[in-house]
Design brief:
By secondary structure, the protein is of the alpha/beta class. 28% of the residues lie in helices and 26% in strands. A hairpin with a 4-residue loop joins strand 10 and strand 11. The radius of gyration is 21 Å and the shape is globular.
């Protein structure tokens, strides 16, 4: 597992045949203490922290495809802690702190780049809203700097400040925000979990959840039945389908979120930039491509692709904010399946079935939440009690109406978050 310059040089001339597998490819055992359904970022981080923080190693992560084939490998890689509401604020603050020590913890380069994130505002009302958000971030212990028009111009001289519809009034700078390499995060957590004895079972689709007398007893899979004392669902956009196997109907809808990347260009965008009036966001990858995205495709779908009207909407926002982008060639687009909750905030909780746990509803926040989600979910599974940072992510808030967290202030409807 040791990497060095000599090994890279040697493999370049020997057909790359000498590398050892980064993790094992074991056959599933008949029984585990804990089975995690979903081998994405959240499932892998949960397995890692179950082993690292709680000493639990008789664990299987079941992934129907290959490690990194889901949303963890198809997102826009943004890491931030600029949330406003109590419940979300402390959770994402905790996640950012974990991000800042992640490479040291995993001994793996996840290319975490704290290049700064700037949210632009285009009206007096938006300025007031971002002042409130910035103050909330500072009160939480995170960083926020309010920029006037000239302050934004110093950081982003290339944007169109005077476009007729959405002139730029200023921005909120989150200096510790930035990006990370999405697939490297999956690989780092996978290797860390594997080294601690966790079995990562790829190409193993869960087809049923076994329940007896109100208690979970295991799962049915494409590779045979597996008994388990505890089963944890963490399947992102497929959460509704997985929960249905246990007779549950989760309060989520699955929508497609598109993203795009251009050809490689010389460095031009140093920050992550968010356009306040178009739900458009953009950054530049280490390979030079401009990575950007926009709003949801507003219909439920499990397809990992989008529609043309939303592509057009995203391109319009891009051209409005920075007309220079019109000269760049778009290489590819893709879609991630987002599990959208009614209030735009996630769910980490026990279910009515003894030993069955659920982690879902991440909306737009899934990638940036990977470390804290795994940390909190592992704590819940191991101890039966919610972690302090995720105490408000209760499933029953959608039944009782207590504790609803409407982060965007747009109402408790799936299609508005």
């Amino acid at each position: 597992m040791r990497y060095n310059a000599w090994q890279i040089f040697k493999e370049a001339f020997t057909g790359q045949t000498g590398w050892k597998p980064v993790w094992r490819d074991p056959e599933p055992k008949k029984e585990y203490d804990i089975v995690l359904i979903g081998g994405g970022g959240h499932g892998l981080s949960t397995a890692y922290y179950l082993a690292k923080n709680h000493g639990l190693t008789n664990i299987a992560v079941l992934e129907k495809g290959y490690i990194g084939s889901g949303n963890i490998g198809r997102n826009t890689t943004i890491v931030r802690a600029n949330y406003f509401l109590p419940g979300n604020s402390e959770f994402y603050s905790h996640s950012l702190k974990l991000w800042e020590g992640l490479e040291s913890d995993l001994n793996y380069n996840v290319m975490h780049s704290q290049r700064g994130l700037i949210n632009l505002f285009h009206s007096d009302g938006q300025r007031d809203a971002f002042v409130r958000r910035g103050n909330a971030m500072i009160n939480q212990g995170d960083d926020a700097v309010l920029l006037d028009r000239d302050g934004v111009r110093q950081h982003l001289p290339y944007i169109d400040f005077d476009n007729v519809r959405f002139p730029v009034y200023g921005g909120l700078l989150h200096p510790r925000g930035g990006t990370a390499r999405h697939d490297a995060v999956a690989w780092g957590y996978a290797r860390g979990a594997d080294q601690r004895g966790v079995d990562l079972i790829q190409n193993c689709e869960v087809t049923g959840i076994d329940i007896s007398n109100g208690k979970v007893t295991g799962v049915q899979t494409s590779r045979g039945p597996i008994r388990a004392k505890k089963v944890a669902m963490v399947a992102a956009g497929r959460s509704g389908q997985v929960a249905a196997m246990a007779g549950m109907r989760l309060p989520i809808e699955s929508h497609v979120l598109q993203a795009f990347v251009t050809e490689g260009l010389k460095p031009v965008i140093d920050h992550v930039v968010s356009f306040g009036m178009g739900h458009f966001y953009i950054s530049q990858s280490d390979k030079g491509g401009l990575v950007f995205g926009g709003d949801l495709d507003f219909y439920s779908s499990y397809a990992q692709r989008g529609n043309l009207p939303m592509k057009e909407h995203v391109m319009e926002a891009a051209m409005t904010l920075m007309p220079m982008i019109g000269k760049a060639k778009v290489l590819r687009s893709w879609g991630g399946i987002m599990d959208m909750s009614p209030d735009g905030s996630p769910i980490i909780d026990r279910t009515h079935v003894d030993g069955l746990f659920v982690n879902c509803g991440w909306n737009y926040g899934g990638f940036k939440a990977v470390p804290a989600s795994g940390w909190a979910y592992a704590h819940l599974i191991a101890t039966g009690k919610p972690h302090d940072t995720a105490a408000r992510y209760r499933l029953d808030r959608f039944t009782t109406g207590r504790g609803i967290m409407d982060e965007e202030g747009t109402g408790s409807q799936h299609n508005l978050h």
